[in-house]
From TrEMBL:
Pfam families: HATPase_c, PAS_3, PAS_9. The keyword Kinase applies. GO terms for molecular function: protein histidine kinase activity. Its EC number is 2.7.13.3. CDD domains: PAS (cd00130). This is histidine kinase.
Length: 1260
């Protein structure tokens, strides 16, 4: 049997972890037709352990369909051609369960013939179900976003990728094919909001909290939308921000509705003011009474004075109170709206008449009946109506006495009859025979045609048309005559007869004009109240509408008007009800008030309220209906708005945990809002009083509260107080009460106020204090301090720990000079420029890293973070921020970089790689070198099954067994196994690792390293034999290499200058013709050669000494060393006319390695000459000093200088050059620093381009 059978020789997978348990192993031997399953695979297929599979069910009971056909094809290809395959399929187990499986089959061939199939079958049901659930959730989210007109987004900070939902692209009217980055998103943000939104994202990154925000976006088509955004900041285990996610909602329509509501409220207030009307509301159960501001003026109450129904009722005229009671009770009992009037007594005892319209609505929550309505001051209107009635009575009396006459006319016979008074009115002698001509001749010539037309029309239509005309008397006096009549049939002869009265209305002309004005006023009133008058003659089907009713219905007055016209306007959904109501009215003779909708010709819909009356004849038959229709569309909208406002008020109370209350001690009135009941934990609507409220107060606070109540009842203002209460579950709440004192008309104290649950605020303040303490501790632990700086006043505030970081005495006033005095000289310019940039731009976009020098000359590295605080006008107020001592961190980071580099080298040199295995997700991450060792593609993240394929078949069971044992014991013992690479070469891998547990102690991850030990195993014996001799050789070789390297570097560098000077002197010697000058130059040849010889001898002597450089020291004189340097560099000094100044008065000698000291002088002076400025004579200054017992040197020149910002960090690096000088090699400063450090010293520099360079050296 092939070696692959070792996979199934022992079945130990039954106790494997969850990530291995769902991997089953199978094997099919083609020749013997034998199929083998391990126990895990039997569990997957839900068959007993005794189950023996065969060739027909190698892969289980496959569900019928295209997937099964594909599986059969793949299996056939594997048998025929030895082609391995992977695919997913579904099985139905004997228990009826449906499971989704993934199979990976490998074919083993011999002489191009498939001998066996083996592989892994993984249960992926859970993953499949999860994918389906995720798909459903995603769809639900998409529907929710469309309904809410919102979109979601996620920003991955590490990857710097921003993902938006489809609906967000829809809101922006942008194609999804054009991905939206953060910068592109900011382009959509309204220019006035852009800076604020960008700042909020920055703030979220800093504070790890995403603030809610409202802002506007401007689309490409010019559309402006209002957006609301909420979000959440996700951090990792170390508190670092990894993701910001949230939603954006288009609230444009909501904003517009809010604006419309405000406008409607303003319009309502204007309407009330212009019509001297107001609205009111009375809860018949609780007595709660509300009214609009305009009613204060109408009822003559002081504006803002607390009003109850009882207070208002006291002002009603005593004689009208029963009438008011009856009317309100009727509305409450019947639910039918009622209009009535009553008198009101004002503060100055004058009488006003109010017209009240009352209706009843039910509270949907508690079914309380609430009376609502309007009140209008009709005092002036009543007065005018009374005057008009009196005048009409006097007018009627006068008409009967003097200016009215009775007449009768038969058209067929031209017979005319006049009463006596009519003869007098027409000044016609009673002796004359009367005819129609007698009357017609008296008519004013301009009116004759009009009168004849009216008479003829009346005769034809058998209906009299009333009219008014003028007559001319014998003295040419003109009188106005009004004709009223009717057409009848004479009972005696059956002829047509016209009869009626003539009224001299000459004296009433002024009253007609007044009446015309009244009609105009009535029309105006109808328009203001959106009311129209109607009349329907049921017998003739004639319909009359007032002008305003035509306007309400949008009906042209010139068009015919019938009952059907009216019915056709009614909304189709209300038409059946209206017709039924009219039929009921025809039967009962009672017209019930109704409300319905109409639809105008333009499609708009209005809500109409109709009231009317019915006129019956003696038989009880309906002759006529008349009434009014009112357009209440806007009123209905206002009612809905009012309900919405009340709902929002309740929500606002709940959100603010606030309740309102009223206490009138003299009237024993104590009322609470619903939210206040909830705060106290009382049942809504239950009886409350002051004693019950006091009983809830926390015992230590009771006396204080009682004292406050005593002061309030004595009229002493206590606007605000706090106390605690204990609710039913023994929870203690802290409440804040705000109140106002007022007095009623009798001088009794009344209180109105709010109670807010501020428990959370108090707890937050306490938590804030604790956080401040923790902040101090945290600052100290993190070597951090906080600061504030006002750039306008220069005043700074530092936390205590910041004083400690700067080594300053606590409380010392901090100004800019003191702050800068601590900055390292090399960083001062950078710090000043950073601060100036923040002040100029009013933005802080980056950290500032700098060094400070403490009192003991020690240097610390700090990082400063600043944030700009602005006022409401966007002007900077101050800067706030933190400063952290990162000296140790920088050192660790540098060490880490070096360690990582060494680790990479070590991996490559040692054939080691590092790995991590997430047990839960079954994902393996491996270092680049390990992937190379295992022969995987770069970047691959194999799972356990894929890794097993790389394991040598003979070792696979071992790997599974050890993996199982590690997870069970939670202990990783190193082991090794073999792998088979793609080229069939075999390598041996050694693994060591560690087990990672979660909080519950479960294994969640394995981490470790793997090493290719193939060569180690092969060479192990050889290494053991030669190890001893190799160690000796290594020691000797290392020592020699070290000496050789040191000698090589020092020799190549230190000999360059003397040799170069020899060449220069040779050039001078050849170029001069002055013999004395040649002799002088030749003498310098001798000096340079002597020094060169001496240097060579010293180098040879130094390299031959095995002790460290520190041991090769002697007492040296700075003057002598400088003189020797001048002699070596004589040619350069002559050529450049350089001037060297020195001051060794503070330290003349030093004990030092002579070769190193000469090398330091030679390198630094030669550099000053080499990199001198062509614009000026070289000036070189060398100064010695003693600081804290250590000897220092300072070399200063006025040469080209170095750009320290760009090159400062690599100034002393090997082969680093900063100028284009042909002799620049980048070795001098590297060797100089190495020599100084070897002697236990240090070197630093400061430099400015085209100014010069200064080197600071601490020698020992």
């Amino acid at each position: 049997m092939s070696t692959e059978n070792t996979l199934l020789q022992t079945d130990k997978t039954s106790t494997t972890p969850s990530s291995i348990k769902n991997i089953g192993i199978f094997q099919f031997e083609v020749d013997s037709n034998k199929v083998t399953w391990n126990d895990v695979l039997r569990e997957i297929h839900q068959v007993p352990k005794t189950f023996i599979p065969n060739a027909d069910n190698i892969y289980g009971n496959c569900k019928e369909g295209i997937v099964k056909e594909n599986l059969i094809k793949a299996h056939t290809q594997a048998l025929l051609k030895g082609v391995s395959f992977e695919l997913e399929y579904e099985v139905i187990t004997p228990k009826g369960s449906s499971r989704f499986l993934h199979v990976a089959t490998h074919a083993t061939t011999n002489d191009n013939k498939c001998t066996s199939l083996h592989g892994f079958i993984t249960d992926i049901t859970h993953t499949k179900v999860k994918n389906i659930e995720n798909h459903i959730l995603k769809k639900q989210l998409e529907y929710a976003e469309k309904l809410a007109n919102s979109g979601s987004w996620k920003w991955d900070i590490n990857l710097d990728t921003l993902t938006w939902s489809d609906n967000f692209y829809h809101i922006l009217k942008r194609h999804k094919e054009k991905p939206l980055s953060f910068e592109t998103f900011l382009e959509y943000v309204h220019i006035e909001d852009k800076e604020e939104i960008a700042a909020k994202f920055d703030l979220a990154l800093k504070t790890k909290h995403f603030p809610d925000s409202n802002y506007r976006i401007a689309l490409k088509d010019g559309t402006i939308k209002n957006m609301k955004s909420i979000g959440e900041v996700i951090t990792d285990a170390h508190g670092e921000v990894i993701t910001i996610m949230g939603t954006c909602q288009d609230i444009t329509e909501s904003k517009e509705r809010d604006q419309q509501l405000i406008q409607k409220k303003q319009q309502l207030e204007l309407t009330e003011n212009s019509s001297e009307a107001g609205t009111w509301q009375l809860n018949t159960k609780t007595g709660a009474f509300k009214w609009s501001d305009n009613l204060y003026k109408i009822t003559d109450f002081e504006y803002g004075e607390p009003i109850s129904f009882e207070v208002l009722y006291a002002r009603i005229h005593p004689k009208d109170k029963p009438h008011v009671d009856k009317a309100l009770q009727s509305v409450k009992n019947t639910g039918i709206k009622k209009t009535f009037s009553h008198r009101l007594i004002t503060r100055d005892k004058s009488i006003r008449t109010l017209e009240i319209t009352a209706d009843v609505v039910s509270n949907r929550i508690n079914n309380d009946k609430v009376l609502i309505g309007t009140a209008r001051d009709i005092t002036d209107r009543i007065k005018i109506e009374h005057e008009l009635i009196e005048k009409n009575q006097l007018l009627n009396f006068a008409e009967h006495l003097t200016t009215m006459g009775y007449w009768r006319y038969k058209p067929e016979t031209d017979d005319v009859f006049w009463s006596d008074n009519l003869y007098q009115m027409f000044e016609q002698p009673k002796t004359d025979k009367l005819s129609f001509s007698t009357y017609f001749n008296k008519i004013h010539s301009d009116d004759k045609a009009f009168v004849k037309e009216k008479i003829d029309q009346s005769i034809i239509d058998h209906k009299f048309y009333d009219f008014t005309h003028r007559i001319v008397l014998s003295d040419n006096t003109i009188r106005f005559i009004q004709i009223l009549g009717k057409v009848t049939i004479n009972r005696n002869d059956g002829s047509q007869e016209l009869l009626g009265t003539c009224l001299d209305v000459t004296d009433n002309e002024s009253r007609e004009l007044e009446l015309s004005k009244k009609n105009q006023q009535l029309n105006v009133a109808e328009k203001m109240a959106m009311i129209g008058y109607w009349q329907w003659n049921t017998t003739t089907n004639e319909v009359f509408w007032s002008d305003n009713l035509h306007a309400i219905y949008g009906h042209d007055k010139r068009e015919p008007l019938t009952f059907e016209t009216y019915i056709n306007y009614i909304h189709k959904e209300d038409k059946k009800t209206v017709v039924a109501n009219l039929e009921t009215a025809m039967k009962t003779g009672e017209f019930l008030e109704s409300t319905y909708r109409i639809q105008l010709d333009d499609g708009s819909i209005k809500i109409i309220k109709s009231v009317g009356k019915i006129t019956l004849n003696s038989k009880g038959e309906v002759l006529e209906m008349s009434g009014t229709c009112q357009d209440i569309t806007e009123n209905k909208k206002k009612e809905l708005e009012l309900l919405e406002i009340n709902r929002q008020l309740n929500l606002a109370e709940q959100m603010a945990m606030l309740g309102m209350w009223v206490w009138k001690p003299s009237k024993n009135i104590f009322k609470w809002s619903d939210s206040l009941y909830k705060i106290y934990g009382f049942e809504l609507g239950s009886d409350v009083n002051i004693d019950k409220a006091i009983s809830m107060i926390y015992t230590p606070d009771k006396e204080k509260v009682k004292e406050v109540i005593k002061n309030l009842l004595n009229g002493i203002e206590v606007p605000r107080s706090t106390y605690r209460i204990i609710v039913n579950n023994n929870e203690i709440k802290t409440l804040e009460v705000r109140r106002e004192i007022s007095k009623d008309e009798h001088g009794n104290i009344e209180l109105l106020g709010t109670t807010q649950d501020i428990t959370h605020i108090v707890e937050t303040e306490q938590l804030l204090q604790e956080k401040n303490h923790l902040l101090s501790f945290t600052e100290e632990m993190a070597s951090m301090g906080s600061w504030q700086w006002n750039p306008h006043t220069g005043i700074s505030k530092w936390s205590d720990n910041l004083y400690k970081l700067y080594d300053l005495e606590l409380g010392v006033p901090i100004d800019m000079d003191l702050f800068l005095s601590r900055i390292h000289p090399e960083d001062s310019e950078k710090v000043v420029e950073h601060i100036e940039h923040i002040v100029a731009t009013q933005k802080s976009e980056s950290l500032l890293s700098y060094r400070i020098v403490l009192n003991d000359d020690s240097i610390r590295s700090l990082e400063l973070m600043a944030e700009v605080v602005k006022d409401s006008n966007g002007q900077m107020i101050e800067l706030i921020g933190t400063a952290q001592d990162v000296t140790d961190r920088i050192k660790r980071e540098q060490d880490l970089i070096e360690k990582n580099q060494l680790l990479t080298f070590a991996e490559q040199l040692s054939s080691i790689g590092y790995w991590k295995w997430d047990i839960i997700q079954d994902v393996m991450e491996k270092s680049e070198n390990l992937l190379k060792i295992l022969d995987f593609e770069p970047g691959a993240k194999p799972d356990f099954k894929t890794y097993l394929k790389r394991v040598h078949p003979a070792d696979r069971e071992k790997v599974i067994d050890i993996s199982q044992r590690i997870i069970e014991t939670k202990k990783f013992d190193k082991f090794h196994h073999r792998i088979v690479k793609n080229d069939n070469s075999i390598k041996t891998i050694k693994l060591i690792g560690e087990v990672i547990l979660d909080k519950e102690g479960n294994v969640i991850e394995l981490i470790g390293s793997s090493q290719d030990i193939t060569e180690q195993i092969e060479a192990h014996q050889k290494i053991m034999d030669t190890n001893r001799s190799l160690e000796k050789s290594t020691i000797n070789l290392t020592s020699k290499n070290k000496q050789l390297a040191e000698f090589n570097h020092i020799t190549s560098h230190n000999l360059r200058s003397p040799v170069s000077n020899l060449n220069a002197l040779l050039g001078l010697y050849k170029s001069t013709e002055n013999e004395s000058k040649k002799i002088e130059i030749f003498e310098k040849f001798e000096i340079v050669i002597d020094h060169l010889t001496e240097t060579l001898n010293a180098l040879i002597e130094t390299i031959s000494i095995k002790n460290s450089a520190v041991e090769i020291t002697q007492e040296l004189c700075f003057e002598q060393t400088l003189l020797k340097t001048k002699e070596i560099l004589a040619a350069e000094l002559i050529k450049s006319n350089a001037n060297i100044r020195c001051d060794f008065s503070k330290a003349q000698n030093v004990r030092y390695n002579p070769i190193y000291l000469e090398s330091i002088f030679l390198n630094l002076v030669s550099n000053s000459l080499k990199y001198r400025s062509e614009d000026r004579v070289p000036e070189i200054s060398i100064t010695s000093n003693t600081v804290n017992g250590r000897i220092t040197l300072e070399f200063e020149d006025n040469g080209l200088g170095i750009d320290m910002k760009s090159n400062g960090h690599k100034l002393f690096g090997l082969n680093k050059v900063f100028h284009k000088h042909p002799d620049a090699k980048g070795i001098g400063l590297f060797l100089t620093k190495a020599q100084i450090v070897a002697m236990g010293g240090s070197i630093s520099a400061k430099s400015k381009v085209d100014v010069g360079t200064t080197f600071f050296i601490i020698l020992n």
